[in-house]
């Protein structure tokens, strides 16, 4: 009885109470502009939020976005905390072993290196450098398997931390998605710039889902197909990334 | 109201004051200020539960029935030795999965139970926890951990009640139960309060772990607000400001500590009323 009263008192005070649960919950990082981020009002915004909401509308399901740290985004999908991942996650064979992907909602996009202004290194023979990437990403996997020999690899929990460390001069190079880096380089007023060649790793970006949720995947794929066909996806890409790649259907 | 204040600042002090005011009153910051409620609720309800667990634990330690006494002793010695962060991680997860285990026995088919690789075995047995439920779990966790400390304090305080008082009560014909609650427990507070105030301070500090339970508390929001931002689409572009936000949290906790000390001083005076202490007769 005491517990029940405590629960009641808490739920009235907290104010959230038992909100009507949405059919489908979508997990996102909320710290990866322009894909997904918290805007000035503290609400989730970004390409994936708009795209996801439109997909849900067309699929006829009610959706709700929840914030989850990148590190645990796949384990918590499998644990059932949410039903879909939309967090700028590239399709890779390794991830396909544990989860299922929808059709791609962002075409394959090369990864790029950024370094401090005026950095000159020989990209054919990278040695003796500190190279950073966000942990558990395709870029982290790439640098760890290709550049670990002779260099120091540092991984970060959030993309912002990796940029902050580059700005502070703690690492020489950062490898990340072009779509994330482009506005960062623009906003750095020349402190950092793109260097070296593009690196093509991973496929396009898609929704991650549990393997058994095949009905949900079919529904979402149909909705995405219609949005690609009428140009909605390309329009959203233009709105948030101000550049391609596009699907051009 | 915020808009008109901002306009007043722009007019009377300058554009810069106004834009800082706008920054500190944007939705993200308001959410940060509002998240203080989680910290305060966890502290207050956690402390209430800690006192309940403490009195029960202390009562168990002096029980006549030996297994109950061992339980009380085990609780106070073992739980005090476990880091609070671990209890925070362990208890809610263990509780959730126990509930899910019972649900899965009832709701999942035999085939699902036998073949499932993931937890829970079927989606019907999935118990999704909202912030409210996590907050209740946090309160219970705090109650368990700091109840063990409180039990130790209360146990010591009960022994400090002068034996003569209890003997006098017995001589007047009060029952053991009456003696325990109306004399021993009633008088022990004055001895227990200094120790309990210590426990409260520790508990207050432990409320900074709420974000471990996916509660968007003041620490989580300070993290989010202080994180460097390089995209003007997201808001103000700034480098890593986390230490500035953490510093505000320092001040907040220090303020709470000062406030608590005053409250405890007042409680101490109140609890001492009518008691013969320090040889005053």
Descriptive report:
The complex is a heterodimer of chains A (249) and B (281). Chain A is of the alpha/beta class and 249 residues long. In chain A, 36% of the residues lie in helices and 24% in strands. Chain A is built from 9 helices and 13 strands. Chain A has helices at 2-14, 47-59, 73-78, 93-96, 138-146, 159-167, 178-187, 214-229, 232-241; strands spanning 24-28, 31-32, 36-38, 44-45, 63-67, 84-85, 100-106, 111-116, 130-134, 152-156, 173-177, 192-199, 205-209. Chain A has a 5-stranded mixed beta sheet with strand order 5-1-6-13-7. Chain A is globular. The N and C termini of chain A lie far apart (61 Å). In chain A, 39% of the residues are buried. By secondary structure, chain B is mainly α. Chain B has one domain (34-271): Orthogonal Bundle (MetI-like fold). Helices cover 75% and strands 0% of the residues of chain B. Chain B has helices at residues 2-12, 15-24, 27-34, 36-61, 66-81, 84-107, 110-115, 131-160, 163-171, 176-206, 218-226, 242-271. In chain B, helix 1 (2-12) packs antiparallel against helix 2 (15-24) and helix 5 (66-81) crosses helix 8. The longest helix of chain B is centred in the last third of the chain and has 31 residues, at 176-206. Chain B is flat, with a radius of gyration of 25 Å. The termini of chain B are far apart. The chains are: A alpha/beta (249), B mainly alpha (281).
């Amino acid at each position: 009885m005491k517990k029940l009263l405590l629960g009641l008192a808490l739920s009235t005070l907290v104010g959230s109470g038992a909100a009507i649960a949405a059919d489908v919950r979508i997990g996102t990082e909320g710290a990866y502009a322009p894909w997904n981020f918290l805007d000035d009002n503290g609400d989730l915004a970004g390409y994936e939020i708009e795209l996801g909401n439109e997909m849900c509308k067309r699929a006829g399901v009610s959706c709700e976005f929840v914030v989850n740290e990148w590190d645990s985004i796949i384990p918590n999908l499998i644990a059932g905390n949410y039903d879909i991942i939309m967090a700028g996650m590239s399709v890779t064979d390794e991830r396909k072993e544990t989860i299922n992907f929808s059709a791609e909602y962002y075409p394959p996009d090369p990864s790029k290196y950024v370094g401090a202004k005026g950095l000159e290194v020989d990209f054919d023979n990278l040695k003796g450098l500190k190279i950073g990437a966000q942990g558990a990403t395709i870029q982290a996997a790439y640098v760890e398997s290709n550049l670990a020999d002779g260099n120091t690899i540092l991984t970060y929990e959030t993309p912002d931390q990796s940029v902050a460390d580059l700005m502070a001069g703690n690492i020489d190079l950062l490898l990340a998605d072009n779509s994330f880096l482009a506005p960062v380089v623009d906003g750095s007023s020349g402190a950092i710039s793109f260097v070296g060649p593009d690196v093509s790793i991973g496929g396009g970006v898609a929704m991650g889902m549990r393997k058994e949720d095949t009905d949900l995947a079919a529904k979402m794929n149909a909705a995405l197909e219609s949005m690609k066909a009428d140009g909605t996806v390309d329009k959203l890409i233009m709105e948030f990334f101000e550049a391609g790649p596009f699907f051009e259907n | 109201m915020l808009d008109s204040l901002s306009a007043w600042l722009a007019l009377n002090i300058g554009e810069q004051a106004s834009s800082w005011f706008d920054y500190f009153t944007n939705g993200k910051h308001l959410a940060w200020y509002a998240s203080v409620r989680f910290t305060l609720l966890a502290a207050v309800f956690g402390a209430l539960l800690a006192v309940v667990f403490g009195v029960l634990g202390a009562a168990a330690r002096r029980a006549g029935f030996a297994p109950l006494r061992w339980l009380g002793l085990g609780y106070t010695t073992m739980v005090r030795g476990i880091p609070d962060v671990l209890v925070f991680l362990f208890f809610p997860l263990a509780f959730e999965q126990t509930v899910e285990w019972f649900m899965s026995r009832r709701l999942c088919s035999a085939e699902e139970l036998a073949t499932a690789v993931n937890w829970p075995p079927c989606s019907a047995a999935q118990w999704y926890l909202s912030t409210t439920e996590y907050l209740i779990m946090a309160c219970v966790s705090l109650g368990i951990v700091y109840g063990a400390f409180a039990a130790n304090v209360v146990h010591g305080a009960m022994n400090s009640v002068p034996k003569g008082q209890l003997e006098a009560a017995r001589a007047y014909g009060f029952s053991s139960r009456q003696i325990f609650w109306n004399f021993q427990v009633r008088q022990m507070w004055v001895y227990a309060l200094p120790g309990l105030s210590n426990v409260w301070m520790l508990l207050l500090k432990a409320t900074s772990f709420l974000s471990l339970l996916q509660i968007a508390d003041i620490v989580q929001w300070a993290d989010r607000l202080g994180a460097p931002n390089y995209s003007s689409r997201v808001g103000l572009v700034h480098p890593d400001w986390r230490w500035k936000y953490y510093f505000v949290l320092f001040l907040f906790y220090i303020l709470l500590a000062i406030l608590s000390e005053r409250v405890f001083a007042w409680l101490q005076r109140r609890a001492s009323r009518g008691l013969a202490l320090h040889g005053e007769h």
